[in-house]
C-alpha cells in the first residue's frame, strides 16, 4: 500500500493561489488584485477581484489614471476585497474571525470594510503602497481593531 502524500501545499499557499487565480479575471491593465476569504474551518466563503460594478459595461469606462476623476479608473473600480465581501451569499456571521487572502495589502477603505465584516486576519502577497498615507491609515485601522496581518510568499 502506498503511503499518503505528505508534501501537499499549505492552506496559506492554497488560499493565496485562489486569490491569485481570481486576480487573473481583472481587466485593470496595471494592477490586478484578487482576494479569497476563508473561514476558521478552512472553507472558502468567497472570492473577488478588482473591477467595475457588474452592471457597468467596462468597455465604456476608463482603465487609466487621470487628474480628472471622471476619466480615472479609481473612481469606478470596486476593490477585490470589497467584491469578495459583497459576493458572499451567506450570513455575515460566518465571516467572524475569517482570514482574507489578498494579493495586495488592503487600502484604508477596504480595511474599514473588512473590520466591519468581522474579518480577523489579513494575509497578503504584495505591499506596493507601503509607507503611503493610505497604507498607514489602513494599518492603524487594522491594528486598532485587532485584525492581524502577515505577508506570505508563494513559490513561482
Ligand atoms: N488592496 C487593493 C488595492 C487596489 N485595488 C485595485 C484598485 C485599482 O484597480 C488598482 C490600483 O490602482 P493602481 O495601483 O494601478 O493605480 O487595484 C484593489 O482591488 N485592492
Ligand atoms: Zn481597497
From TrEMBL:
<keyword id="KW-0862">Zinc</keyword>
<dbReference type="InterPro" id="IPR002125">
    <property type="entry name" value="CMP_dCMP_dom"/>
</dbReference>
<dbReference type="InterPro" id="IPR015517">
    <property type="entry name" value="dCMP_deaminase-rel"/>
</dbReference>
<dbReference type="Pfam" id="PF00383">
    <property type="entry name" value="dCMP_cyt_deam_1"/>
</dbReference>
<dbReference type="InterPro" id="IPR016193">
    <property type="entry name" value="Cytidine_deaminase-like"/>
</dbReference>
<comment type="similarity">
    <text>Belongs to the cytidine and deoxycytidylate deaminase family.</text>
</comment>
<feature type="domain" description="CMP/dCMP-type deaminase">
    <location>
        <begin position="10"/>
        <end position="135"/>
    </location>
</feature>
<dbReference type="InterPro" id="IPR016473">
    <property type="entry name" value="dCMP_deaminase"/>
</dbReference>
<dbReference type="InterPro" id="IPR016192">
    <property type="entry name" value="APOBEC/CMP_deaminase_Zn-bd"/>
</dbReference>
<keyword id="KW-0479">Metal-binding</keyword>
<dbReference type="InterPro" id="IPR035105">
    <property type="entry name" value="Deoxycytidylate_deaminase_dom"/>
</dbReference>
<protein>
    <submittedName>
        <fullName>dCMP deaminase family protein</fullName>
    </submittedName>
</protein>
<keyword id="KW-0378">Hydrolase</keyword>
Amino acid at each position: 500500500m502506498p503511503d499518503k502524500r505528505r508534501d501537499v501545499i499549505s492552506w496559506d499557499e492554497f488560499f493565496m493561489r485562489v486569490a491569485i487565480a481570481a486576480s487573473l479575471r481583472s481587466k485593470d491593465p496595471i494592477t490586478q488584485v484578487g482576494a479569497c476569504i476563508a473561514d476558521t474551518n478552512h472553507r472558502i466563503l468567497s472570492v473577488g477581484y478588482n473591477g467595475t460594478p457588474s452592471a457597468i459595461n467596462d468597455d465604456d469606462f476608463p482603465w487609466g489614471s487621470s487628474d480628472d476623476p471622471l476619466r480615472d479608473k479609481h473612481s469606478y473600480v470596486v476593490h477585490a476585497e470589497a467584491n469578495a465581501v459583497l459576493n458572499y451569499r451567506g450570513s455575515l456571521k460566518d465571516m467572524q474571525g475569517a482570514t482574507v487572502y489578498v494579493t495586495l495589502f488592503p487600502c484604508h477603505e477596504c480595511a474599514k470594510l473588512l473590520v466591519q465584516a468581522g474579518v480577523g486576519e489579513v494575509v497578503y502577497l504584495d505591499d506596493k503602497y507601503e509607507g503611503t498615507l493610505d497604507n498607514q491609515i489602513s494599518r492603524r485601522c487594522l491594528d486598532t481593531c485587532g485584525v492581524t496581518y502577515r505577508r506570505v510568499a508563494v513559490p513561482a
